[in-house]
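Obj: model holo form, ligand = N,N,N-trimethyl-histidine.
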Amino acid sequence: MNPVPAVQFYDYHPGVASLRDEVLQGLTVRPKAISPKFFYDARGSQLFDAICELPEYYLTRKETGILQRQAQAIAALVGPDCLLIELGSGASKKVRLLLETLRPSQYLGVDISKDFLLQSTRQLAGDYPWLEVHAACADFSQTLDLSYCPPSVEKLAFFPGSSIGNFQPHEAVHFLAQLAANLRPHGALLIGVDLKKDPRLLHAAYNDAQGVTAEFNLNLLWRIRAELDTDLDPARFAHQAFYNESQGRIEMHLLSREQQRIRIEDRLVEFEAGETIHTENSYKYHIDEFQVLARQAGYRSEYVWTDAERLFSVHYLHLQESR
Ligand code: AVJ
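Output (holo structure tokens):
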């Protein structure tokens, strides 16, 4: 018999009420907006994995290269037997680059996509029998509470993929400060941050030729159709992504192809032709811009690594001694 590897599981999944409340709230204000955290149902998580393989989506490849090259250096900074906490762990692929070298004693994966999280952490536990594996299904976009964490001395938080870019800069500071509070008294943060660059490269990364990013964006509407009571027709919307230079961010929207009225549960939502639902921000930071945010949140910057073309950065930040 081959037993299913043991994963300690903590379930704080927000549930369908959160989708309904946030969608109705977001569609009855102007400008209309829905949080990108709702992208990640099972299909959305799959599509995001496909995005990571796209030739135009350099982020994953660049970050993976940096982590591979710097694994030894990171391990030397952290030391063995830490608790490694991965935020937005998804398929838990990137953490595999660190495990053999870093040799943490415990791993905690936190993600909003429940089935995906369970499946990937079970696989991790099977592949690394020496590792104690924990998984928490949680929405950490508003509050981050890791008090269910296994007790440990040294904690390393790992927040890859430039997911920090989903927050506005002031929200990012708030989030990082909450994370710092959860890491105290001892801890560090390894975080991937996409760099500012030629807008044409950014544009291509979010408007891929195969249309996978478009499908990922539109999947949000298919999800709403599947989980809520509505006559919404996703075919009446189009994917839109562009670089907003003054804000330093990629914006993704779902653009209404026509004037329409949609019923969602007991509410009617009106769209003008060309009106959009803002579905994601993906902020890009110069190295020093991000270091300023990190400092405001209570970290000191120890190391920053980039790829040779300077498309992507990985920061190693240490908790500031509390004053
Ligand atoms: C997972 C938030 C880092 O912003 O690049 C990819 C999500 N959206 N393509 C990003 C995403 C469109 C991704 N993050």
